[in-house]
């Protein structure tokens, strides 16, 4: 695909850029260059939590631009990859970046030799004078906070983990340095994904009985020098260079309080009982 033109996105609706930048706390430049791209990605990753509450509360996930703006920008909620990267892709293109969406297979925490997962993760490729970059603001657990050069074999340092891309047949495999060993994150191809690819992946991820996001509570948000993760009733804080600290939560009220305090996700009182099923769940897995 030529980097000279952006392919059309379905149901293209302008993003309110001022409202979006206010939501993520970004006050930097807006020209389509690496400095702007880096600033926006870091601001979104550290301001907008990864979360799947709408799925657990039976509200579903909509990917049209208006729904994404309403949820993430106006309601100050989070989302998962199709939502976060779907919004970010539109922002970048509206700013004049040459960018397109990719799709991949999650490999994070998969045992060796496990069968391939479906195409359920959205990523973004951005073309810059310096070369193509990989941008991903929506991977829960170990989210990128900076753009990565799309160069296989290059170890790329960030303020969190080191990352690298490894060639794997016709795909690229994104890995992170997990304390001296390389952990697989996602394998993806370089063919531009279609809107239908995202709709299909989103439908499976948000509704299938075997989906991780249908069965478990997940919230994640990085901050400078640390990451916070809530998995069911287990809150984990990972400070760069230190051993992670874990805290087990013993009630739905404690889970709701953790969502509010650590992820800026207040839970309506009538939804707190839904969280009860996650108490004690992590220890049973």
From TrEMBL:
Keyword Transferase attributed: yes
Segment forming the signal sequence: none
InterPro entries linked to this entry: Arylamine_N-AcTrfase, Papain-like_cys_pep_sf
Keywords: Transferase
Keyword check for Chloroplast: no
GO molecular function terms attached to this record: acetyltransferase activity
Entry similarity comment: Belongs to the arylamine N-acetyltransferase family.
Descriptive protein name: Arylamine N-acetyltransferase
């Amino acid at each position: 695909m030529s980097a000279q033109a952006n392919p059309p996105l379905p149901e293209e609706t302008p993003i309110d850029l001022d409202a979006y930048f206010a939501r993520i706390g970004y006050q930097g430049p807006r020209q389509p260059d690496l400095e702007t791209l880096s600033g926006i990605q870091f601001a979104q990753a550290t301001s907008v939590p990864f979360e799947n509450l709408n799925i657990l509360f039976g509200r579903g996930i909509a990917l049209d631009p208006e729904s994404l703006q309403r949820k993430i920008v106006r309601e100050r909620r989070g989302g998962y990859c199709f939502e976060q990267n779907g919004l970010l892709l539109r922002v970048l293109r509206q700013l004049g970046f040459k960018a397109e969406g990719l799709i991949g297979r999650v490999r994070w925490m998969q045992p060796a030799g496990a069968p391939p997962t479906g195409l359920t993760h959205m990523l973004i490729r951005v073309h810059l004078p310096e070369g193509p970059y990989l941008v991903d603001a929506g991977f829960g657990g170990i989210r990128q906070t900076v753009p990565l050069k799309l160069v296989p074999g290059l170890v790329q340092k960030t303020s969190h983990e080191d990352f690298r891309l490894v060639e794997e047949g016709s795909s690229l495999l994104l890995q992170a340095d997990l304390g001296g060993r390389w952990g697989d994150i996602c394998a993806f191809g370089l063919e531009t994904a279609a809107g239908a690819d995202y709709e299909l992946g989103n439908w499976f991820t948000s509704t299938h009985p075997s989906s991780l996001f249908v069965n478990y509570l997940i919230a994640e948000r990085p901050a400078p020098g640390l990451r916070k993760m809530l998995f069911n009733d287990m809150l984990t804080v990972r400070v760069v260079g230190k051993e992670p600290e874990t805290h087990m939560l013993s009630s739905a009220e404690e889970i709701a309080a953790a969502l509010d305090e650590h992820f800026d996700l207040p839970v309506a009182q009538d939804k707190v009982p839904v969280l009860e099923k996650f108490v004690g769940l992590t220890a049973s897995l």
